[in-house]
Amino acid sequence: MRMITWLRSHRVAANLAGAAICFALFGYALYAAHPKDLGGLGLEPCPLCIFQRIAVVALGVAFVLAALLSVPRARAAGCVAVVLVTLAASAGAGVAGRHVYIQSQPAGSIPACGATLEYMMDVFPVMYVLRKVLTGSGECSKIDWSFLGLSMPGWVLLWALALGTVGVIINWPRRRSAAA
To answer: Is the separation of the CB atoms in 92 and 122 below 8 Å?
Structure first.
């Protein structure tokens, strides 16, 4: 309880720390996708990985906006911050959760690799692309990287849930006191 009180009293710093974590996660994803001969891990991101990156960056932007909104500390600003953080964290957790589910399926139960995201965006309507990507395909079921027994989507799921929870707690508008 003492930690929550401290975080709420230092909203700007806590929101900026949340944003820094999100941008660090995105930076690691870029490093992981960088070619091996140039010092990266050489992991090719699947369409679900790309959507997770977008959600993590959106969560970072939501934290930055929450930090900016927490300076005047109007009650409506707190509500806006909570909504932005919740939406971005939910999107990231949803896509990462779907990716973890696809990776947990037995071999051969997921269709073979599909078209690239870039090709689908050029050829198909956006809603079709979203539906197609979220169903997942062979490249999304492959686990190329893990740390402490969790794949990269598993870590994104944990971070999105943790950051979303902390973001809601620190930005939740306080009740007005009877004396005010």
So the answer is: no
